[in-house]
Automatic annotation (TrEMBL), chain A:
Domain ABC transporter per the UniProt entry, residue ranges: 4-236
Stated name of the protein: ABC transporter ATP-binding protein
CDD domains: ABC_MalK_N
InterPro entries membership: AAA+_ATPase, ABC_transporter-like_ATP-bd, ABC_transporter-like_CS, ABC_transpr_MalK-like, ABC_transpr_MalK/UgpC-like, Mo/tungstate-bd_C_term_dom, NA-bd_OB-fold, OB_MalK-like
Keyword Transport: yes
One Pfam family cited in the UniProt record for this chain: ABC_tran
UniProt lineage: Bacteria, Bacillati, Bacillota, Bacilli, Lactobacillales
Sorted UniProt keywords: ATP-binding, Nucleotide-binding, Transport
UniProtKB/TrEMBL annotation, chain B:
SUPFAM superfamilies the record matches: MetI-like
Protein name per the record: Carbohydrate ABC transporter permease
Domain ABC transmembrane type-1, residue spans: 72-262
Chief location: membrane
Family note: Belongs to the binding-protein-dependent transport system permease family.
InterPro entries: MetI-like, MetI-like_sf
UniProt organism field: Lactiplantibacillus plajomi
Domain of life: Bacteria
Amino acid sequence: MVEIKLDHIYKKYKGNEKYSVTDFNMDIPDEEFVVFVGPSGCGKTTTLRMVAGLETITKGDLYMNGQVVNKVQPKDRDIAMVFQNYALYPNMTVADNMGFGLKIRKTPRNEIKKRVTDAAQILGLSDYLERKPGALSGGQRQRVALGRAIVRDASLFLLDEPLSNLDAKLRVDMRTKIAQLHQRLQTNMIYVTHDQVEAMTMADRIVIMNDGKVQQIGTPDDLYNKPANQFVAGFIGSPSMNFFDVHLHDNRVSNEKGFDVEVPEGRLKILREQGYLDKDVTLGMRPEDIHTEQVALETFPNAVVNAQVVVSEFLGTDSNLYSKTGDTEFVAQVNARDFHKPGENVQMAFEMSKAHFFDKESGATIE
Amino acid sequence: MTEKSRILKIILYIVLIAYAIITLYPFLWALAASFKPLKEIVSGNPALMPQHFTLDNYKYITGTSSLFTKWFMNSVIVSIIGTVVNLFLNTMAGYALARLNFPGRQKIYYTFLALMMVPAQVLLIPNYLILMNLGMLDTFSSLILPAAINIGNIFMMRQFFLSFPMDVEEAAEIDGLGRIATFFRIVMPLARPSIATQAIFVFMGFWNNFMQPMLYISTPKKYTLTLGLQTFTSQATGVRWDHTMAASIISIVPIIILYIIFNGYFLQGVRMDGEK
Ligand SMILES: Nc1ncnc2c1ncn2[C@@H]1O[C@H](COP(=O)(O)OP(=O)(O)O)[C@@H](O)[C@H]1O
Ligand SMILES: [Mg+2]
């Protein structure tokens, strides 16, 4: 129940040379599930903490419902937050940890009890309510931290890597729980993670950051299919997109190591218009756009590469073939039926209509 | 190797036991003497067990003809008030130096450190003059006010708060507490072990203080125990070792009680961060 606007926000920590967050600019309408994603140290936590009011804003304005809140204390922002390091009260039981925020806000006792019990139920903590945090495992503490947030009906939820210490199964489980929670509460959530899978599965919109700078803001679909630059393209998707340093001449891209494929007319037109003819560019291919089936080899006869499999991973429905052509390494994700053993020489077809092209210097998508 | 270390260990234990006996003996002697008549104490008999066991010494000092009970209560009042004031001020000052951002914080901190090197004796005369001008001589305030803070303890609390996890406080702020409420409801309870350690040292300091009461207090009714005890040894009738011993034994009881209460905190290593 709050509209947030981050208006050209910068953060530089005292004593640091560099800005930790540079020109963060975004509108978050009510009820949106926003995920900040990016490698460790890119400024996700810093941004989240500025929204929470735990960190001062060096430059720029933060609005909530149209009001500048740069100087508003955290306690007056009506937020609930899950901290990266749990930050539980060591001297209180699990139940008291979860209920503390409600107690401060003078919620009636039986109401607190009810909400804590419900949250504990959802989080599988019912048996631990009387324990102190010291007697819990990392995953249990993380769930208590989550519980402390969800018992509150705050108007904004901030979650800083809330699932990072859970095992794989529980993580998937909790992901769904948080998504359901968002649907039930109908409030804004800002969720921080370094895990692109979490970002892709949970977000309405994703903010992808690198080195303090927002790289792209968009829906999971946007980020996957229309990455703004090479960083986004490489960060989203697993296995990562393959990049090839190539030279564009006539209607082909190639390198000296024998990699040579034809670029379809549609893509070529754009490249030509942007003046990349006879220039070096970076070609990006998602692993699933590289094929080994016979039918693909026949469909894309002008983009077939002779490759050798180096490592192959069998994943059930798919297999990942880590291969190389000449000196260039790449990975292809193919149907598990097309499994190839390491050392095998395989012909692979590049589905060039799905190719991405990036400026070699700036990494920006050529479009 | 093991043989050698075993011998070393045995030697170590012999030394420690000898040391324990040497330290303990005078105390046991005093305890025994408090149950002996004066004649037996001064007879030079080194035996610990009283030959003529008597409670008269205790009866005398707690009786009406002695001010001992009064002095004991004076010491209790001064020590408790002084300790409580110290705990609050030292803890808050330590917190401020560790956590709050205000101009000159670093300078204040270094000033404190520098002041720590000033010997207490140097301050006796200036303090006396100040107290005189404030008209506070011969009051309990003269014992409490100049000792209302203790830089050593401020320093200790500062170090404690530096290692105190910031995000626990932040969680409290998010949960709806302001800065001051966070301090009293979250930080103070978690600082209990440090505060308990402080409490013991500060209390002992007040309880055993002799110099300040001697200088500032002149009315016998306002004497503290330490000062009062001294009068037993300087009476015209000669040193009343019998009364002195009984009074000394009683005077260490509060320290022992305090130690028993807080000992748990001393030994308790607390997990502050909610993590492994
Ligand atoms: N309290 C701080 N003081 C100084 N630098 C900090 C502080 N917190 C974070 N940083 C720096 O700011 C950058 C962003 O950190 P952070 O927001 O924690 O990244 P993330 O959460 O994305 O991993 C990092 O380079 C980090 O070293
Ligand atoms: Mg972080």
